[in-house]
């Protein structure tokens, strides 16, 4: 789609016939993070979660195909995030004291390894919400690793 109107954090874009309600979108050349909050035909009304200053009609709007969501799991304890789960410590390394527009980074260090303790075995039947195992992040915090929602019942092939 393309931006047709900007007013504060609100953006209207046309050509968005494939968009879904609550879908995360990137807005403008700076790829600002936004969320579809209303659809009328092929026009999407978008809430942008960063400053929209400088955005102008004609700039692209691209859907991600995913709803706005946050990461939950090992690595979040001890982090400080902004409103769209960007870790402030990592952002300051990239852009200094002020968060630059359109800057993204992973919410946790994806290179860090954690010890996984399985609670199921190969061949066990699992489905949405089944706990596959646990990961201890601190002495007090243990994360359950679960089968994602909407997965059908299946036998575990490999662990």
TrEMBL record:
Residues 3-65 form the ATPase F1/V1/A1 complex alpha/beta subunit N-terminal domain. This is H(+)-transporting two-sector ATPase. Belongs to the ATPase alpha/beta chains family. GO terms for biological process: ATP metabolic process. CDD domains: ATP-synt_V_A-type_alpha_N (cd18119). Signal peptide: none annotated. Residues 106-151 form the ATPsynthase alpha/beta subunit barrel-sandwich domain. GO terms for molecular function: ATP binding; proton-transporting ATPase activity, rotational mechanism. Keywords: ATP-binding, Hydrogen ion transport, Ion transport, Nucleotide-binding, Translocase, Transport. PANTHER family: H(+)-TRANSPORTING TWO-SECTOR ATPASE, V-TYPE PROTON ATPASE CATALYTIC SUBUNIT A.
